[in-house]
UniProtKB/TrEMBL annotation:
Keywords linked to the UniProt accession: Amino-acid biosynthesis, Metal-binding, Methionine biosynthesis, Methyltransferase, Repeat, Transferase, Zinc
Gene behind this protein: metE
Protein name: 5-methyltetrahydropteroyltriglutamate--homocysteine methyltransferase
Function text: Catalyzes the transfer of a methyl group from 5-methyltetrahydrofolate to homocysteine resulting in methionine formation.
Signal peptide: none
Binding, L-homocysteine: 446-448, 499, 614
Pathway: Amino-acid biosynthesis; L-methionine biosynthesis via de novo pathway; L-methionine from L-homocysteine (MetE route): step 1/1
Source organism: Streptomyces yunnanensis
HAMAP family attached to this UniProt entry: Meth_synth
Lineage of source species: Bacteria, Bacillati, Actinomycetota, Actinomycetes, Kitasatosporales
Amino acid sequence: MTAKPAAAAARATVYGYPRQGRHRELKKAVEGYWKGKVTADALTETARTLRRAHWQQLADAGIHEVPTGDFSYYDHVLDTSVMVGAVPDRHRAAVAADALDGYFAMARGTQDVAPLEMTKWFDTNYHYLVPELGPDTVFTADSAKQVAELKEARALGLTARPVLVGPVTYLLLSKPAPGVAADFEPLTLLDRLLPVYAQVLADLRAAGAEWVQLDEPALVQDRTPADLNAAARAYRELGTRTDRPKLLVASYFDRLGDALPVLAKAPVDGLALDFTDAAAANLDALAAVGGLPGKRLVAGVVNGRNIWINDLEKSLATLGTLLGLADRVDVAASCSLLHVPLDAALERDIDPQIARWLAFARQKTTELATLARGLSQGTDTIAAELAANRADLASRANSVLTHDPAVRARAAAVTEADVRRSQAYGQRTVAQRTHLGLPLLPTTTIGSFPQTDELRAARADLRAGRIDTAGYEERIRAEIQEVVSFQEQAGLDVLVHGEPERNDMVQYFAEQLTGYLATRHGWVQSYGTRYVRPPVLAGDISRPEPMTVRWTTYAQSLTERPVKGMLTGPVTMLAWSFVRDDQPLAQTARQVALALRDEVADLEAAGTSVIQVDEPALRETLPLRAADHPAYLAWATDAFRLSTSGVRPDTQIHTHMCYAEFGDIVQAIDDLDADVISLEATRSHMQVARELAAHGYPREAGPGVYDIHSPRVPSPAEAADLLRTGLRAIPAERLWVNPDCGLKTRDWPEVRASLESLVAAARTVRAEL
Ligand code: GLN
Ligand code: ZN
């Protein structure tokens, strides 16, 4: 197959690159600066060195147009707030005194001033700082950072394209500043913001930018006609300025939908669209609007969010189709490479048979360059790369790791009965009540107790070989003893073992399941200087042996009260991992669910009467578009039920989620058919209890009465008050008493006092019933 060369030679580009450096130099420099151990000059120099190294890496790999301005000391949305002068009043003095310290004060707060709120960047695990705006916000252009980085890249002789958060997305991601009416819509500030963007664009053009990219991922979400009008207005305004560079409006994470015709008609010079499977609808939609005559199309064909090699032939086919639809077609990753680790070549411990399936940021740039070459010069010129890619893909498809016949046969044989409890809730709750003999308003916790320095030291000692497994397990047992004896003294009703053996609620299970891999250098930014190393779900999932049973049964051996088994649910196991892309998520979730189902069965057989399966990620992986929610929620709730429905009627299944706003998934929560759900509720004063009641949620629930995000110890009176509020929505027979979430980040003294308050509150309110 030989595609004919494109009219204009295709360029390879990316929208952003991992910031941290191969040894996480940026994290170390920034944290060193916070501690006063690294000077501002040294931090600036580290950052400049990293940027230069990354641009050079990109250029060496064959990227024709490198991004600038995507680099950040903390977060690019915060950088955008600085760029448009949207500094909250409470931070103005600090910013005026010292721009860098003021910047970090906005990100992290100080003793006296609260930081900006942080929230998830679309459906990724990256978190941004939410801009705070109000009717009095005055925007002012500060293009210094953008201009400086553009000049740095150009000084290296590179073709560079500044990347900015677009004005519509910026406003749609903002929230009313404290003290501003909650119904204030930041988008109403658009007319005030556009001149500031126009100024920044003019500055960038003056500094030598031919193209500037404006990221508008908010347009892949369901948008109102008013939002779309705002987008049309924004790009008509910016596009008709004469002193501007060429404008590339970028979208990613999903299809553009109704926003596509709006942008296609706008007087801008190019659009970047996501063409990965999740956004495949963009292809037909683009054809339907008649393509982008006279415009540049940047085609995101290499998935910027997963860590797997691309199917180059498939991408070439997509690119070939697109050639007829625009003036020129360039090749890109679907989104910034910020969401993937830096370099798979650093992974020396991964079996080379598997390592060849991996593409981190660095490998993806090579793929892009290859695709651009194939597109411009004909596929003959990349014949060797195509052959190698075909062989790598075939080795993955034929691997025993990705295809375990026993796992597949079992998953295929799952029936409707397997995802249903043998009795309806109304019947089994009676059996559970008899079996467990709990008081009204039973007290419990969410699972983890403080992860102390001693526990972390024990894990480090084990890794370093200073203690052996037996010595480590001895320390874990001692911790469990302490946790259990404290809970008995405090008078809790359903105990936990405290999760001292878990480094992380996903990693702990990933390490024990066949089909998962760990990386050594696979860091991705979660927020600021926090980087995580998600496990890699690479193959068919099976459970060679029980994962939690001995710790739970050990804890149970120490007490007469029920000890709750504690597992991480299938949706969360997928959400916080890099998941294989060679089969539907539903199928992968089903495999994980079956492994968990076996764990649940083993716990039950070992005498565990209460088992909690945590699903904090159920809501966060909700697709960006409402039309996709039902399909997602169907497989997600099915997987949860598959993992939990094999138990006897008198075994009580709990689940837990960490948030207070879940109106859009309340039906899905109901569909989980868990006997008990615990949720965060303290800060919202039991709002979740009212929402569950409004929905007619028929089962038991524990809206939290202790805010674990704060070191503050609630008084018995406060907790009792919250319980009374809860009782107005949920009857006493169905109300549980628990904290908002796990206690692993808290200290023992606070936890002791807080749980004592919680038990005291439960006793007080019970006496009032
Ligand atoms: N069982 C876990 C814990 O208590 C749940 C954590 C979570 O919801 N994120 O730590
Ligand atoms: Zn939680």
